[in-house]
Structures are given as structure tokens and as C-alpha cells.
Design a protein that fits this description.
Length: about 200
């Protein structure tokens, strides 16, 4: 009697998922969630649709994976900034980190989150909600850091940590829009310099 053949596991993937994900990140970053078509993604990733679905799920799941990669690699400065010893140093590290990330020659210009959130239509509402939730988490961390600075006497008593964080976020989003529109790095550095000139000190 001939024993039954062992079940096959299917063909192994013939591409590097990390490389493919990095390529997808580049597409989403430059075109936003809605603007990135499946054809754009598969061409950049060097795979076909079945391989994309098998490795990453649907477009929304792929975007979330790409956004995780973006935050881990490109937004590390937002976490590092919180460890700076003064509120002004936190702000400077944050702002200069944003300039570096948004104008680097290693990727598209601007901020992936700002680009995608602004361009999301009704079909991308869950993506926009995810981006806003992540942004709210970063916002809360910055508010908490400025509250600590206020308690330590590092900020004047009349300065509201929440309002100061909103000021920072407005600057960051405005810089992202300028960078996405092709603004020169030197111009963004001037924005940072001017902002630091009016920074409240105790």
C-alpha cells in the first residue's frame, strides 16, 4: 500500500516582505492613502495582487503596517524629544527633527500622516480615524511633558501646557504642508528659529 502524500504548504514567498513594505510606505507617503492605487503599490513593491493580499491583507491593512514602519523609523525623534531636560529643548528637538524628516532626501517630502489624513475620502474614514488617534496620543504625551515642565518651574505659570502643545502642533503641521509643497529646508529652519525666539521662558 502506498502511503498518502504529505500535504504541501504552498510555494514559499519569493520576495522580502520588509523590502516590499518599505516600498509601499514610499507610495503611501508620496500619494496618501486614497491617492495610492493597487497598481501603484504592486508596481513599487514588485509583486502581484495575490502576493500582496497573502502577505499583508488588504490595502487598509497594508497602510497600517506602513504607518507603523513610518512611526518607528521616521518619527523616532518625537519620542526622543520628550527626554530633553527643558521644555525649550524639547520643542527644538521636536521641530528640528520634523524638518529633517520632512525634507530628507531618503523619502518623499512632508508628513505621511498629514498627507493621508487630508486626502482621505469617505472610504478611508477608518484610516483617518486611526491617524487622528495616533496624533492624539503624541499630543497627550507632549502636553504631559509641558505640564511637568510647568510644575518644575521651567515654564512661566501663566503658560497653558495644552495651548503650548497646540501651538507646537500647528507649527508642525504647517511645516509639513510647506515641505510637501517643496519649501526649501533653509526656509523651514527659519520657521524653527523664529518660533524658538518667542518661546516662553520662566
Amino acid at each position: 500500500m502506498i502511503p498518502p502524500a504529505a500535504p504541501t504548504r504552498g510555494r514559499p514567498r519569493e520576495f522580502c516582505t520588509d523590502t516590499a513594505l518599505a516600498a509601499a510606505l514610499g507610495v503611501f507617503w508620496s500619494k496618501g492613502y486614497d491617492g495610492a492605487s493597487m497598481a501603484d503599490l504592486t508596481e513599487a513593491m514588485g509583486i502581484n495582487k495575490p502576493s500582496l493580499y497573502a502577505a499583508f491583507g488588504n490595502k487598509e491593512q497594508l497602510f497600517r503596517r506602513a504607518l507603523d514602519l513610518y512611526e518607528a523609523e521616521k518619527l523616532a525623534y518625537t519620542r526622543e524629544a520628550l527626554t530633553e531636560p527643558t521644555a525649550r529643548r524639547v520643542a527644538e528637538y521636536y521641530l528640528r527633527g520634523a524638518v529633517e524628516a520632512q525634507t530628507s532626501s531618503c523619502g518623499p517630502k512632508g508628513c505621511m500622516g498629514v498627507i493621508s489624513a487630508a486626502a482621505c475620502g469617505s472610504e478611508g474614514s477608518s484610516i483617518k480615524a486611526d491617524i487622528m488617534q495616533r496624533r492624539a496620543s503624541s499630543h497627550a504625551a507632549l502636553v504631559e511633558r509641558f505640564r511637568r515642565a510647568s510644575a518644575e518651574g521651567d515654564l512661566p505659570g501663566h503658560v497653558d501646557p495644552e495651548a503650548l502643545t497646540l501651538f507646537m502642533c500647528t507649527l508642525l503641521q504647517g511645516m509639513a504642508v510647506l515641505a510637501g509643497g517643496g519649501a526649501a529646508r533653509a526656509d523651514l529652519e527659519r520657521v524653527v528659529d523664529t518660533s524658538l525666539m518667542v518661546w516662553p521662558t520662566a
